[in-house]
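Need tokens for this chain, all 314 residues.
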Amino acid sequence: MKVAFLGTGPIGIPSLRALASSGDHEICAVITQPDRPSGRGLQLIPTPIKAEAQALGLEVHQPPKLRAPEAIEWFRALAPDIAVVVAYGQILPKSILEIPPLGCLNIHASLLPRHRGASPINSAILAGDPTTGVTIMWMDEGLDTGDALLTTETPIGHHETAGALHDRLAEMAPAPLLEALRQIATGTAPHYPQDNTLATHAPKLEKSDGFIDWTLPAQEIARRIRGLSPWPGATTFYPHRDEKRLLKVHSALAIVRGAAVPGEIVRANRRGIYVGTGRGLLLLRTVQAAGGKRVEAAEFARGNHLTLGMVLGS
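Here are the structure tokens for all 314 residues:
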């Protein structure tokens, strides 16, 4: 089959590699977002998918808006049999979805209908889900509402961050994708309608989502630290002389027993910094001050003269 591959983020790289090396399909084009300025010099940086596609010798296109009339006509002239979409970053209009005669597939990093939307990996951890997975789905005009074709499930590790889970799901995706394409080619691919009553929404994350609310239970804060790593990251403020400075918390452990004022430092030892929450204590293990490097929390407490009774947060 002639496959148009639409993706932007790194989660799609293993699937693109698998398609390119399968020998069963022709990738007629890779479509990705335009290069974006980054860094102090605002140098244009290619998307991860563009860099990988060029390394594989594939044709790359970067229309600013895929719904623009000229982009739609170009896509029609491309004449793909099927489109594969993963973390592309633009909503495909009906005029695009209707062009491939065999349809458009989306690789979604959750067990749909749970966690439809932009942050399914983070949301699964934030919600305390024991499992998640990859869904290969038939695309329609809704937000991740199309029929499911295949799902692959995996447990979420007790200490797994969103970044680590992202990488695992990326490596899991090629197998069900290639199997889905095989079923489509043989005319045996199923359509499993989603149960909309079970749907949850995974909204786009904002930087402000990372601020720690110390009135929450320790277990929930610990999940948020994992679920928001590496971006936007879990942050709080610590007292420094007459001001409060930003502190990123990279890892922490919930201590169910113990009570203190939310945000109050109640103990600091070689294990880390113990902080009061709405229920239980949170043991900060690794932290990073703004402009500094990631260090053990115990080392940070010594170097910044954090004392018992100090209160973290705004």
